[in-house]
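Sample pair:
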Amino acid sequence: MPDIIWGNGKNVISKDSFELTVTHRQNGNSEEYQDAVKIIISGVDLPGLSDDKSNWKIDDLEKVIVGSFLKCEISSKTSEGDLISKVSHSGAAGY
């Protein structure tokens, strides 16, 4: 089972990455996560954003990421410590 973190999208870095301010962490995660992390998107379930990464533009990501409460299912980590994750919108009450 992947580690899961939740938080608020802060700013878009590139066509497939952004900063997340982590507010919640799943109990039982295999690692501890800092309060601010870089997410590289491996997959999405975000209304308004195509499933095809080649169609993404920074403006499109900003509309669905910045200020949104997001769930990130972490599949791996880069050597720089960036988190490769599936990203979806999450309801604050139910995470």
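The chain has one domain: 3-89.
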